[in-house]
Structures are given as structure tokens and as C-alpha cells.
Amino acid sequence: MRTCYACSNEATTGEHVPPKCLFPEMKDTPGGTDLRRNLFTVPSCDEHNTHKSGDDEYLAVVLAINLPANHVAQLQVSSKIARAVARRPKLAASMMGRVEPVLIADDRTLELYEASQVELDGLRFERTLRLLSLGIYFQHFDRRWDGSLRVLPEFIAFPYEQNSAEIANAVATVAICSEILFKDTPHIGANPSVFFYQIHEGEDSATCVLRLTFYEGCKVTVYFGIND
Ligand SMILES: [Zn+2]
Questions:
Q1: How close is the Cα of 35 to the center of ligand 1, in Å?
Q2: What is d(CA 71, CA 74) in angstroms, rounded to the nearest whole number?
């Protein structure tokens, strides 16, 4: 019996990790570039198939509208996501919580420009990233991880938390440590402008650190074997 990437139940289906909807369809890419080459799939039970829960679509939107995301993400927003919203206007409303205008300073020119700050369904986002991390772990090691893991998106701000400055500092520290840890680590993934991952194995097999990069700018560090 083939078991699920996330639990001990029998696998009934295959799950794309990351979800296929993150990768633009060929008809939406300039010059018909194929950005869906050799996608990763892992065996999954019904419960842990993010496609069935709609969580994959949520993840795709949250990642694609993020500022650090590259031109491929913008392509997704103007094609696939725009079509989904046109088809189901309530979709956008259900995915976005509070939306507020914010001023962002450009890293290089320090010029201010207007953007939007969208409230995140943190639990849903975290659940989806956790499953995705388990999927990548399975893909890489061909076995299921059943220990603890901690997911740290490096591109999310927490302006509404009481200790938002503290959280921002912690996130910045993680980002700097990850940059150093993964500096010379190979990028794994056939479509790196959409997604690639890097893995750093610990001394023993009980820990490892994974870094996920979506649309070249949205980075997530995942610690396996470290308790919350
Ligand atoms: Zn499962």
C-alpha cells in the first residue's frame, strides 16, 4: 500500500507540490514558454489533497500578489487569477480580509509608492504551507516526515499584532540566517522562475532546514525537528 505524504492513510490520488495552479499555463506565457515542466507529485489521501480543499488556490493568490514576487507572478494575476475572479466575484471577497492602502519604500531608490496591504487568513496560509513542506520533504527523501516542523514565511508582515516590531525583527533575522545557510546550496526545481527549493540536512537525520522560493522573491524557511 502506498501511503499519503502527510499521514499514514492509504494514498488515493497524486498531489502536486507546489500546487499546479502556481505554474502559469502555456497559453498565458509570452511566446508559449512551458513553465509546467517536470512538476513534483507525491501520493496523497483525500484529506491532504489541497486541491480538494481550495487551499491551493488561496496559496496561489497570496503568493502572486506579494510585492517581492516576480513578473511570472504578475502574469498569473493578470491572466489566471483575473479569470477566476471574473467567474466567481465572491472568490476575491472571500479570500481577502481587510484591504488597506500602504506606502512602501523601494529598496534601491527609496522612492515611496502606493500598494495594498491585505489581511491574511494566517491559519489557512500556515496549514497550506505546512502541507506543502511535508510534500517537498516526501519528494526529496521518499519518506514521510512525522516529527515537528515550523514554517516561517519571510515576506509576511504582522502589522496588527501587539508585538509587530518584535515579530518583524525575528523574521528579518531568519531571512538573514537563511541567506547565509543556503548561499551555496543547489536550487531544485525545473521551473525556477515559479518555484525551487533548497535543503540543508542536519548532522543527524532528525533535523533539516528547507527553503522554498516562490516567484523568485517570496521565501519561506521551514525547520524540521524543532519544536514550536
Ligand atoms: Zn493524508
A1: 28
A2: 5
